[in-house]
Amino acid sequence: MICAKCGMEHPLEEMELTFRRPDDAAKLSEEERLRLLRDNSDLCIIGEERFFIRAVLPLPVESREDPYCIGLWVEVSQAAFDRIYDLWESEDQGLEPPFAVRIANEIPTAAGSLGLDAELRSSGPTVRPRVFLKPTSHQLYAEQARGIDVHRVAEFTALFA
Ligand SMILES: [Zn+2]
């Protein structure tokens, strides 16, 4: 199908935009990284005082059943981090009330995303927690609430290149 916005054909992309680290962790020098950073592919701690969780931000896509998911990091309080860590393997984590978080990556095609307030919801031990933005005038909130078109999906995915 030819896109009405740009006249190109957008393939059905399964690839998702993914951030490897929180922006503030990626900014560290190599020396700081060795000294301050503890992380793996799901969790990240900077200097024993800042705590991050890897999550996905789902955006509904028109004419498609599955949402487009951006893999990004959120910053959480130490108490929330400890709770999430304790529940990591638990089947009951979906029963937990959502955690208040802040987006920890700047998405270049959604400038100003860094620092947005959101909620983190767990659904089960084998599923990455999902992020839902709090109401704000930022476009990403509207896009999550109303959905995006395949042209917009292509814009996000192009950030890989
Ligand atoms: Zn297009």
Please, could you describe this protein's structure?
With 161 residues, the protein is of the alpha+beta class. The chain has 5 helices and 7 strands. Strands 1-2-3-4-5-6-7 form a 7-stranded antiparallel beta sheet. Bound molecules: zinc ion.
Secondary structure blueprint with pairings:
Layout: H1 23-26, H2 30-36, E1 37-39, E2 43-46, E3 50-59, E4 68-76, H3 78-86, E5 99-103, E6 117-121, E7 130-133, H4 139-146, H5 150-157
What strand order characterises the main sheet?
A: 1-2-3-4-5-6-7
Rounded Rg: 17 Å
Taken as a percent bin, the fraction of beta residues is: 15-25%
**Mean pLDDT, all residues:** 92
Quaternary organisation: single chain
In this entry the ligands are: zinc ion
Kindly, what is the distance between the CA atoms of the first and last residues, rounded to a whole number of angstroms? Answer: 23 Å
Largest sheet report: 7 strands, antiparallel
Low-pLDDT runs: none
Total of DSSP H or I helical runs spanning 4+ residues: 5
